[in-house]
């Protein structure tokens, strides 16, 4: 039985999946409004730090629902998590510290957890997945987000026995490593999104985090710190994302990468496992005789695909994307502007730091700090120059935060 058929069955039984959503921003609200017309699924709780945002999302839900149900709207996310009318929680906050608290509370409440919060997943995802798995619960990233959409292509190819050489995504915004909420404000207003969220896209942090999540899910690594980030199209990347000895830029295969020019799509570059498959690929792809081919999905629908993950979690106890085990890669914090002694550092999408992808091995060796730990009261111990990869010698991390405590537990768990 397909997921859609299972949802129709739940609708027929009058037993819809009861969804609680934490975070009523752009993505959360769009998803909430969409669930109104999905059979066998209903939104029963919405939490946001601004009550009016939660209510606005609930109103959007009721405006389209043919069978409107009561929706709990609150500012305290715990009320949604512990509500008896909620069986699955969606974290749409994008904030590491809040995400850590949500993950812990949902585990205690024995609720399935679907993440639209890549930021927390790359910081403590390996630990939380292990804990949820031990409890018989689902902890998962979301369908429609680029990491899961790329993983879907990766598994599609691997299920046919093909060799996957490169996996990645297109970048939606030109890289502006100094972007901050002020510089992003005008464009954010046009797009009706938060300026700090847009800044995190523009300065590259979101791309690094997304490819970090993909790396942890499939075992591929960045070919270099920060990846190459070339410009290209579906034809040119086959030549460029090849080994150096073949005229490309890569030192190795088995890498994650992003390409300016392929947005909003995701891709994998594959190689047929034998001569017969190579011939058939060239014939079916209609691209001539090639050694490598690109499997390209030209879109990802972000939070609009999240209900598919919700259904997987509740109906099948299944996931969209999870870490393989111990961290493979990390998104570490790099200074965006000169910092003075005693200055407080803000976090993702702010004025002070951006994220850069590197392997977990390199992070440990260099003593770099995961960007998800730039949370709470983080203060500079000394002056730090723009472009510096932060270490704990540079800053005093806030050890009172939930994300710091869970990260330390993760570090000891996977030593």
Descriptive notes:
Strands 3-2-1-4-5-6 form a 6-stranded parallel beta sheet, with helices on both faces. The chain is α/β, with parallel strands linked by helices and 415 residues long. The protein is globular and about 60 Å long. The mean pLDDT is 96. It has helices spanning 3-13, 26-35, 51-64, 77-81, 96-108, 118-134, 146-159, 181-191, 195-202, 205-218, 236-240, 275-285, 306-316, 360-366, 402-413, and strands spanning 17-22, 41-47, 72-74, 88-91, 112-115, 139-141, 163-171, 221-222, 230-231, 255-260, 266-271, 293-297, 329-335, 344-345, 353-359, 378-380, 395-396. Helix 3 (51-64) links the parallel strand 2 and strand 3 (72-74). 51% of the residues are buried.
Concise summary:
The protein is α/β, with parallel strands linked by helices and 415 residues long.
Which descriptors would you attach to this protein?
single chain, 415 residues, alpha/beta, six-stranded parallel sheet, six-stranded mixed sheet, 17 strands, 19% strand
Structural class by secondary-structure content: alpha/beta
The end-to-end distance, rounded to whole angstroms, is: 41 Å
Task: State the helicity in percent bands.
Answer: 25-40%
Q: Would you identify the regions where 5 or more consecutive residues have pLDDT less than 50?
A: none
What Rg do the Cα atoms give?
A: 21 Å
**Shape designation:** globular
Question: Order of strands across the biggest sheet?
Answer: 3-2-1-4-5-6
| Largest beta-sheet characterization | 6 strands, parallel
- Our count of helices gives 15
Counted beta strands:
17
Strand percent estimate: 15-25%
Return the average pLDDT rounded to an integer: 96
